[in-house]
Design a protein that fits this description.
Elements: H1 8-14, H2 25-33, E1 38-41, H3 50-58, E2 62-66, H4 73-82, E3 87-90, H5 96-108, E4 113-116, H6 118-121, H7 124-131, E5 135-141, H8 155-158, H9 160-165, E6 172-176, H10 181-190, E7 198-200, E8 208-214, H11 218-227, E9 234-238, H12 242-254, E10 259-262, H13 268-280, E11 285-288, E12 301-306, H14 313-320, E13 330-336, H15 338-349, H16 355-373, H17 379-385, H18 398-401, E14 406-408, H19 410-422, H20 429-436, H21 442-446, H22 463-475, E15 479-481, E16 487-489, H23 494-497, E17 504-506, H24 527-547, H25 551-554, H26 557-566, H27 571-575
Parallel strand pairs: 1-6, 1-7, 2-4, 2-5, 3-4, 5-6, 8-13, 9-11, 9-12, 10-11, 12-13
Antiparallel strand pairs: 14-17, 15-16
Length: about 575
């Protein structure tokens, strides 16, 4: 516990170098310092860690921080040490003598923070260790993992409520960036946090430019996007399979990019080494599956690209939120296609999950599809999902920058769905389109489909147009692909066939290579300040290597930018810069 004269405000400035709290930070900190529990839903980069770090410095004892990944604990500890906080980690990857030292430091009260993984936290031996120690609070990071409705549910998180219950009077604080209403309610219930102690900040990340594009030539689209980024900027590219991460990383490396792959199939030592490189180096591109990213606290990631559909809106929001944590301009690009949807639906429907979970997953998938297809400002459906009303336009997304036109394709869609029905729902999309266009094929005559009323009624549209419409039908859930790629009508198709529902699509759907890809996420500095900024970044890299810590632990880009712009001439002037502590 720090001096009794300290206040949250004084620690905010003297330790962390910031002048003002943001959002609900002050309320949360006051609640936890006074011994109350809290659940905190704040967007990535909004300063959730301060909500437990400052109470840890003001309360008697050690704050126990449940952190999801052992691989990140060294960096969390290094970041705490950099601002004078006494911290340690306790995990199985540490040498035995280091574990003993951390345990002794906890018992003796020599620590402000102790980071542990949920698996360690649930061990009986760790409970006994805590019973012999003075616990200030429990901080449960990535708390959406507590909920079975969360997108990253982990059973070990589910047991943390029992750990907290064993220490009555010790406040608990659950923190996450992504939780819809169902997930929030489950977190509160599992961790026994009162409903009135839920703090939800606005979800809008104003500095992120959101762009969504249909896949046409994914690698070409990706490279066009990368050419629009500042040289040497850091980014994350998410792929859906391990092989794809290797392919994309190799292709980028051949083009001169500093790109590496990351996935669960790598040896643990390789994953640790690659993650350490990403955290410590500037200008690296991490091409990864979703196995990478949770808990990453690198502030200067300038872009996040998805090469296919993410798992859900929650997953998408969390993954894109790894860009621009420093508040500077950043971009999020999502490339998607109808086949992504077909594959996602197949995995959900053929999983071993209970029917109730499948229904939830299918509903979340449809919400994600609706987001991709939206004709309105992209922030509107994204923020609406999290219960954060937003009317737009934001003027910082692809639909606001280049408003899409739409066309009524109801009649053509009815023709297509009718053709699927009349051919017996037993054929693939290409065959159905050939029937619609009146193709002269032996196969069509063999099945007698040249005598159907739908035969030849679609000659005015090119085959490619009909195939695009078929993809739209799959996207909207009117068609579902079965065995041998046969198309089947769903219940959602009925209102369209009966003329009760109109269907609209974007004009030139396949043309959607992101126009905003050339929008640079650059720091707007005058030339002389830009030169100094680059020199400061080089100095920061040297310092980080010398101290064995990530570069952002020394100073984030936003602080270096302010130093380069204002050029402080004394220690007092330097301390006036946001992000510079004593």
């Amino acid at each position: 516990m720090w001096g009794s004269a300290q206040t949250p405000q004084s620690i905010l400035k003297s330790v962390f170098g910031y002048d003002q709290f943001r959002g609900h930070q002050a309320e949360v900190i006051d609640a936890v310092v006074s011994g109350q529990s809290a659940a905190v839903i704040m967007p990535t980069g909004a300063g959730k860690s301060l909500c437990y770090q400052i109470p840890a410095l003001l309360r008697q004892g050690t704050a126990i921080v449940i952190s999801p990944l052992i691989a990140l604990m060294d960096d969390q500890v290094a970041a705490a040490h950099a601002v004078g906080i006494k911290a340690a980690a306790l995990n199985s990857a540490m040498p035995y003598d280091a574990q003993i030292a951390a345990e002794e430091a906890l018992r003796s009260g020599a620590l402000d923070l102790l980071f542990v993984a949920p698996e360690r936290a649930n061990l009986p031996g760790f409970h006994r260790l805590l019973m012999a120690s003075d616990v200030a609070l429990f901080a449960i990071d990535e708390a959406h993992c507590v909920s079975e409705w969360g997108h990253d549910f982990r059973p070990d998180y589910r047991q943390l409520g029992q750990l907290c219950d064993a220490f009555p009077g010790v406040p608990r604080i659950a923190l996450t960036a992504t939780a819809d209403e169902r997930t929030r309610a489950d977190i509160l219930e599992q961790l026994a946090i009162p409903n009135d102690q839920l703090f939800v900040s606005g979800f809008d990340r104003e500095n992120i430019f959101y762009d969504v594009a249909l896949k046409t030539s994914p690698m070409s689209q990706l490279k066009t996007f990368l050419r629009g980024q500042e040289q040497g900027s850091t980014g994350i590219i998410y792929c859906q399979t391990r092989n794809k991460t290797e392919e994309v990383a190799a292709s980028l490396a051949r083009d001169g990019y500093d790109a590496i792959a990351y996935h669960a199939g790598l040896e643990a030592s390789d994953r640790t080494q690659r993650q350490a490189r990403f955290l410590r180096e500037d200008g690296l591109i991490m091409v990864a599956t979703v196995a990478f990213g949770m808990g990453i606290n690198k502030p200067d990631v300038r872009y996040v690209v998805h090469m296919g559909l993410p798992k859900s809106i929650e997953a998408y929001y969390q993954e894109t939120g790894r860009a621009g944590r420093d508040g500077l301009p950043a971009q999020a690009l999502l490339l998607w296609g109808a086949q992504d949807i077909v594959q996602a639906r197949w995995f959900i429907q053929n999983s071993d999950a209970p029917d109730a979970q499948k229904a939830v997953d299918l509903s979340r998938l449809q919400t994600l599809i609706d987001y991709c297809e939206t004709l309105e400002c992209r922030r509107v459906p994204l923020l609406r999902y999290f219960g954060d009303p937003y009317e737009g336009p934001c003027k910082n997304c692809s639909t606001c920058l280049s408003p899409p036109e739409q066309e009524d394709v109801t009649e053509a869609m009815r023709m297509l769905l009718s053709a699927v029905y009349r051919t017996g729902q037993s054929f693939g999309l290409h065959y159905v389109v050939d029937v619609l266009r009146g193709s002269d094929q032996d196969k069509i005559r063999k099945f007698g489909h040249d005598a159907l009323s739908v035969f030849g009624i679609g000659k005015e549209l090119a085959k490619s147009d009909w195939l695009d419409l078929g993809k739209l039908a799959q996207t909207k859930g009117y068609l579902q692909e079965g065995e041998h790629r046969a198309q089947h009508l769903t219940a959602a198709a009925r209102p369209v066939l009966k003329g009760e529902e109109q269907v609209f699509q974007r004009k030139e759907r396949a043309r959607k290579a992101a126009k905003a890809s050339k929008r640079r996420a650059s720091i707007d500095l005058p030339p002389e300040a830009q030169t100094l900024f680059e020199e400061l970044r080089a100095w920061r890299t040297q310092q980080a290597k010398a101290q064995g810590v990530p570069a952002y632990v020394i100073f984030p880009d936003a602080t270096l930018e302010a130093i380069a712009l204002h050029r402080p001439q004394s220690e007092e002037e330097l301390l006036e810069i946001n992000g510079v502590g004593c």
